[in-house]
């Protein structure tokens, strides 16, 4: 569809920190990509022919943070002449493309959730989106409604369903510094396997500990200056510290 003004809006939610949300590409290497990178949304506008458009050949605007929190987030992209408004959750970035945005030579095809036609784009190293979309509108047209009614101008690749399944997550929140969970030890056990996910605004705090028995030793897993550290102790051996993450 051709229009003087392009308006694209959608809502998404995901637990993945990386993925392509939107891609549109032309024959000459021009493209627009909306991508989730480490929980932030990046809008990349690329004018492929740098000889024709030597200045401002690439624009990259990043908005939002922690967008991989399995909550709905809204996105709005408005393009009129050389003015572009990029909005994520009511935070808007306005920018001008110095007139060259007018020369974007784009095919009239939009893809949501990934990049079609392998080998066509220089952005193929990036991941497809894994999560839910709702209310995808392109110039007022409800794209998901067209897809649900199997209209010929829409096609799917891969596994897609018209529902948004919630992951089976059972969270627990420690409301004060004195609250914790305790699990009784199993006598004679010489191996332990523990896994969990956590989120906090605090840079310090004890995550996990086993009681330090003189005979068998134990460990502490804790946050220190925003990094995860583990202290291991065994009887007769010195305390060893390992740091990971940031």
Automatic annotation (TrEMBL):
UniProt-listed SUPFAM superfamilies: Concanavalin A-like lectins/glucanases (SSF49899)
Pfam families: Laminin_G_2 (PF02210)
Laminin G domain: residues covered: 1-164
Protein name, per record: CNTP4 protein
Lineage: Eukaryota, Metazoa, Chordata, Craniata, Vertebrata
Gene behind the chain: Cntnap4_0
